[in-house]
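Good day; I would like, with your permission, to put a structural problem before you. What I wish to show you is a protein chain and, alongside it, a tokenised description of its three-dimensional fold. Please examine both parts with care and let me know of anything in them that strikes you as inconsistent. Thank you for your consideration; the sequence and its tokens are set out here:

***
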Amino acid sequence: MLSDDPNNERAFRALAEIVRRRAAETGSEEDPLAAPADEVERERAADLAVWALGEELAGNPRAWYPLIEVARLSVRDDHEGTVRRLTTASERDPSGRALVESLALLRGAGQPVDALGLGVGHWRPREHDPEVARHLVLAAIEAGRPLEAKQHLSSLDLYPDQRAVADLRTELARVVAQAEQTIPGT
């Protein structure tokens, strides 16, 4: 399935779980002279196995989901590598789903400024999933930039199906209005 569609999330997760389980099971049990592996070591081996799987699948020029999964594994330890992988994933996906996942990952890691940089550089409001707007607005607020959040919200005006984004616009307008109240002098 992954050779046909390298972005099949369900298939990737299922294969990653098999690889993770297998990597966690192997180790010192095979070597009677080695000390038993502790839980941290097993988790690290499982992560490395998933990393290898993601890197292998990311070699496909259409693959963006494996890059996001590898970025998820590297977000704590390799900032530049994470941003590079998320940038490549966002460039490979014309729908904007990779950009949504990338922005959510960066925001979840407490990196809203990086999320803003990635989003501003890659968001195409007319073509991409409107959820990109949610993450950009929230990232701007998290970065202490409510006026920038307002600009991202207004970019939803470019989306062709305005009825589809009406609820999102209303929700985000409330969030932006609350954030603007925190600006000194307003």
Q: What stands out?
A: The mean pLDDT is 90. The chain has nine helices and no strands.
